[in-house]
Specification:
10 helices
Length: 280
């Protein structure tokens, strides 16, 4: 059967992609950020999955603000990089796994989650930046990817508890697939940041670090944190962190911490990154 072997979290701030695409990795400002992923690039070479379930949020690229699904799943064979206003990122086309995605959709919907099935979708920096941070700049992505977009852009976003439960449903769906697949689940976005208003530029490092601690050791309690705390402590865009709870819900209750990295700042965002392996 298919199995989830590990989870990854990473911020997906677009400036990371711009730094990569414009050969700025060696600049002192960016070198400190990308150094935190050196271990990850070597780790994933030795632990290469067949498929990545990549939880992210679309930034009004695939979806207009007229229709935004709370939870979706990309069921296409491929996904083109989105044009976010300055042309698509110069990255490979994202190869999907339509058969596996259809199975996941059926299983999760039968577990009473109303996933929106998406058969055609471009993917923006929310999905392509995490791939770049883990795989660098290859001619083709070395894994298949099933996009799982989550609405954290328009009010109301899903609760942390609902996201954690979706992770559990995804794990059950993966394990009921009858092909031998090594699957990883990635939760992206965050950490604390706010892009507008009088608190623009907010970064709350103590809260971020506590969030990471609790994600590792007490995720079910962390999932109970209300939206208001995310907004108050982590800024309006800090709500993206509920997507990390989807990743964590898909893992076993106890996990092995393989890698932890936190850096301030990258653009106006705190960068957080984890690799967690399932304890079988």
């Amino acid at each position: 059967m298919a199995r989830i072997t590990a989870g990854v979290t990473t911020s997906h701030v677009p400036a990371l992609g711009a730094a990569l695409d414009n050969n700025k990795l060696g600049e002192p400002y960016w070198a400190r950020v990308f150094a935190g992923y050196d271990f990850s690039k070597e780790w994933i070479k030795k632990n290469m999955p067949d498929v990545v379930l990549l939880v992210y949020n679309d930034h009004a690229s695939a979806f207009s603000l007229d229709i935004v699904p709370t939870f979706g799943i990309g069921c296409a064979d491929s996904f083109q990089p989105a044009d976010e206003g300055w042309g698509p990122r110069p990255v490979p086309v994202v190869k999907g796994h339509a058969e596996f995605a259809a199975h996941l959709a059926q299983s999760v919907i039968q577990q009473d989650f109303d996933l929106t099935i998406i058969n055609k979708m471009d993917v923006d920096h929310g999905l392509t930046v995490p791939l770049s941070m883990m795989f660098g700049q290859p001619d083709a992505w070395p894994v298949r990817v099933i996009p799982i977009p989550v609405n954290v852009v328009l009010f109301p976003p899903p609760s942390g508890s609902r996201c954690f439960a979706l992770g559990k449903a995804l794990r059950k769906a993966v394990e009921s697939f009858d092909q031998d697949l090594n699957v990883q689940i990635w939760g992206t976005g965050g950490m604390s940041h706010q892009l507008q208003g009088t608190r623009a530029g907010l970064i709350n490092s103590p809260w971020d670090q506590k969030f990471i601690d609790r994600l590792i050791s007490e995720p079910e309690e962390l999932a109970k944190v209300p939206h208001l705390e995310y907004v108050r402590e982590a800024g309006s865009e800090g709500i993206e962190l509920v997507m990390w709870l989807i990743m964590r819900g898909a893992l076993s209750s106890k996990v092995n911490l393989v890698h932890r990295f936190y850096h301030v700042p990258a653009s106006n965002t705190a960068i957080g990154h984890l690799i967690l392996e399932n304890q079988q």
